[in-house]
Amino acid sequence: MRAHRLARLAPGLAALVAGLLVLGPALGPGFVLRYDMVFVPEPPVTWSTGGFPRAVPSDLVVALLAHVLPAPAVQKLILVGIFVLAGCGAAALVPGNRVIPRLAAAVFYAWNAYLAQRLLLGQWALLLGFAGLPWAVRAAARGGPWRLALALIPAAVGGFQAMLVSALAVLPVAATGSSRRFRAPLEALAVLAVLSLPWAVPASLSHAVTDPAGVDAFAARADGPFGTLGSLLSLGGIWNAQADVPGQAAWVLAGARLLVAVTAILAFVRLPRTADDAGVPYGKGLLIAASAGLAIALAGAYAPGVLKGMIGLWPGFGPLRDGQLYIAPLVLVQAVGFGMLAGRFSRPDAAGRRAAVFVPAVVGVLLPVLVLPTLAWGASGRLAAVEYPDDWRRVQEIVNGDPRPGALISLPWGAHRAFPWNGGRVILDPATKLFARRVIWDDTLLVGLAGGRLLRVPGEDLLGRRIGVAIGAGGGPLTSILRAAGIRYVLIAGRDDNVFPSRLPGAIPAFVGAEVLLLRL
Length: 521
Description:
By secondary structure, the protein is an alpha+beta fold. Helices cover 54% and strands 8% of the residues. The radius of gyration is 24 Å and the shape is globular.
């Protein structure tokens, strides 16, 4: 009985160890801040306004949890929980009760290029949906709206990207895996719609705009020697080169990952023939989802005009720009296939001797780590925890303690920052999360292209666009323009005293620190 219980716990323990090895220095005191992963001390309980609601309801959930636990602990529990939930879910999809296949699937799903690149891009909310995807697939295959709703809670917390990726897998699985074929997809669609309301409603009311030029910026790319298709099959290919794991483009490692990927897919394709159909009711639907996700990813790279035309007709097609996002079902296909493949090489022989298969079993379970070794220890140091300087806490107290209405504008005008106290790591402007009032910031995206070209994707917030035009129009005064826009505070990070303060005559210093300057209009 004890051995059986240990076997059931093994995938979760393996995923936990994988998470601890990946996060490494990120689990130290303070916050890990990188690109979109911006957690702040004492986050205010607010609802996102202005632009597309990308952090809804994830920021609200974090703020509520931070009223119970310290905010750094909330971040670390979420990050570690992603690995454990992901590994246990992948193991639960593997047919049978053998330990080695379940262990291999758990390690694969918790240690791969897709998870690594999205983590290095700071997209923890998306990874909540990725972690819950196996559970959602399992629930959709079994049928029942309440079971599916419970399995989709991580994606619902994650928001629009997590829910879109989940919908891509859930709907075909529900349509092909349940005995109630006509009713099941309708139930699944209803559940997805209801759980999407927290972000879908504000999205429809936000008046956010989507520039078709973003297709070029977010298109999947080759991050190894086997082209864009090879990168996507190997579960990489993200648009931002700064999200690559160190050394992942090396021929040996890239070739090994591609070989593992192809063989794992083939093993999954054979799965319905090697197991009872009742044991893999999700097989056909998940293959459909993986194929559709790969097609979306390839469209941005090889047929960008199609996506641009679709976005021009309706901005709601905007989320398809980041096509690599949708290969999450392919990751799950490979994880389950890899688990079954590892199981084939770890069966005892006819005499029941297990010692002969011990080494192949261990190698099989650890192979995902061996083909992406530099993901360990915060991707070789790219993830680390830091403390916010006291100046940021002081301005947060001043602004959030002011009962008078009015927005805050964050300067210098740019979406991302690279502070020395954060080791020079690029992060989204922390001001967007710190304050219990609307923050006006530059959500324009600048993406470097081949040949040194720079692609500018205009921001989605119309008010931000208008203020950006005023800021960029020469060096005239801005005080009256900002007041007319309903702005009460101006936050200047990096103390660029020679530029913006001189353009704000009449502004009253509310806080002057070494890191930031806060002005009140």
